Amino acid sequence: MGHERGTAIETRPLGRDGPRLTRVGLGMAALGRPAYITLGHAADLPGHPSPEALERHAHAVLDAAYAAGVRYVDAARSYGRAEQFVRSWLDARGLPAGDVVVGSKWGYRYTGDWQLRAARHEVKDHSLSALREQLAESRAALGPHLALYQIHSATEDTGVLGDDAVLDALASVRDGGVRVGVTVSGPGQAAAVRRALGIRRGGDPLFASVQATWNLLERSCEDALREAHAAGRAVLVKEALANGRLGPRGDAAAGPLGEIAAALGATVDAVALAAALAQPFADVVLLGASTVPQLASNLEALGVQLPVGAQGALATLREGAAEYWRRRAGLPWT
């Protein structure tokens, strides 16, 4: 049933005439800095890893993902040293630009200073000056490998989707050959996606992709994602395991999710990810694995065939958007 090592993974285009992305990608949020909000993350990175130790660890996970056929990697300026780790891995393996499609994001600054219990681990800044500064940093870190540059967690209240100076600057990035995307977050995700879909520059849509949270607990954005998919945007699904809540250590691992997983002889994370992959709007589902065994378990999703009626049973896990995001805001950084 599982995905065999080295077999090809289906791909989807990044917007019109863009590079092709594998249906699953590796997210670097939990691999570029020592702390993150995934449940039990401290057990995945025991102690307080140095930057050099975490780089070696990230390279091992990237190696495993590449060997399995994953060819999309998702980083961000706020993910600690994620961009640098991806670049050092690409260089060490001698992989040319385009072999792995690399996306990154701007709009948050990493402020955790490599501490596990920092007062604040990241700070949002959607200003034009932040875009200019972080774009230069991303280009310096990733060079020719940067293929997709996204606004990080755009929301209606930050005003970034109505900031003409920022949007014009992003259009220049697009016109220079790097695709531009937008990621959204929070209970207002759907409104932000729809706002982004209407933004055009030079007669063409500005954003080639949208990235949003969709999982069995938080489904409030799915209608907007269907609209994005129908409009030709690549749809990237993030947090498909709800920061670990839908994994083996999570509070949602019992009930219908656990029952279906047991019946299939699969892990609960593989079933939750298979449910995301089965959504017709989902072009790419990002994996947040922070260890090689977690990645192997996640990749089993590619071989999971959900039985008739499973989606209906899994739909009972849905929470209201406000409640979901309230609980997410309370997750500790470990």
TrEMBL record:
Pfam families: Aldo_ket_red. Residues 55-306 form the NADP-dependent oxidoreductase domain. This is Oxidoreductase. Gene3D superfamilies: NADP-dependent oxidoreductase domain. PANTHER family: D-THREO-ALDOSE 1-DEHYDROGENASE, NADP-DEPENDENT OXIDOREDUCTASE DOMAIN-CONTAINING PROTEIN.
